[in-house]
Amino acid sequence: MSDFDESLEELTLLKSTLRSSLRQYPNFPSPGILFEDILPLFSTPSLHASLIRALEIHILATHPPTLTPPFSGVDVVVGLEARGFLFGPSLALKLGAGFVPVRKAGKLPGQTVKVMYEKEYGVDWFEMQRDAIRPGQRVVVVDDIIATGGSAAAAGTLVKQLGGELVEYIFILELDFLKGREKLGAPVYTLLNGQEEGGLGVGERS
């Protein structure tokens, strides 16, 4: 068995372990919503390590370092406020990449770039520090779940405003029926199986 095949087999086992470790809460926070809780993935070092290893396997297979330009597979991991902060820094450290947070407007010091995105009941703003990403750096954007795709698309816009090359969006879960990936201008990878219509996963998200 090749190293690639072994990695794929390891990824399959890791995904099974991670999926079985999620907790589900029917009718929370309101009737008709099946809330999928990812916090158990961070409750023990072994599960946290399994999550990071699973994402690492995917990224190294999809964006491997090369001996010719662009050399690096991934230079920067961008995490969305707030759950992208739970695993974005650990993943960046594992990859030897930098970590950059995307935050709500007014939360970051210094000069920033800002973009508006639509939510279910209005609009909001995301910001990133102006010097966080250098032109040409290869970037992945991570968050816990993709729903309608608005917040992830806004993060991608910030990356491109700073001259970064957005190579992929990565999520733990996906609400397939909301078709959020159709709004994103880069490949999308979801680690665990998404949820079909009838539930709203980890709650209402943009």
What are the SSEs and their pairings?
Layout: H1 3-21, E1 23-26, E2 34-37, H2 45-62, E3 76-80, H3 84-95, E4 98-104, E5 112-119, E6 122-129, E7 138-146, H4 150-161, E8 165-174, E9 188-190
Parallel strand pairs: 3-4, 3-7, 7-8, 8-9
Antiparallel strand pairs: 1-2, 4-6, 5-6
Helix pairs in contact: 1-2, 2-3
Q: What key phrases describe this protein's structure?
A:
disordered C terminus, globular, two-stranded antiparallel ribbon, 30% helix, 206 residues, seven-stranded mixed beta sheet, alpha/beta
Describe this structure in words.
This protein has four helices and nine strands. It has 206 residues and is an alpha/beta fold. Helix 3 (84-95) links the parallel strand 3 and strand 4.
Number of strands: 9
Radius of gyration: 17 Å
* Helical stretch tally: 4
Uncertain residue ranges:
198-206
Helix and strand element order: HEEHEHEEEEHEE
The geometry reads as globular
Q: What is the beta-strand fraction?
A: 25-35%
Mean pLDDT: 92
Largest sheet: 7 strands, mixed
Helix content range:
25-40%
End-to-end separation: 42 Å
Q: How are the strands ordered across the major sheet?
A: 5-6-4-3-7-8-9
Structural class: alpha/beta
A few lines on this structure:
By secondary structure, the chain is α/β, with parallel strands linked by helices. Helix content is 30%, strand content 28%.
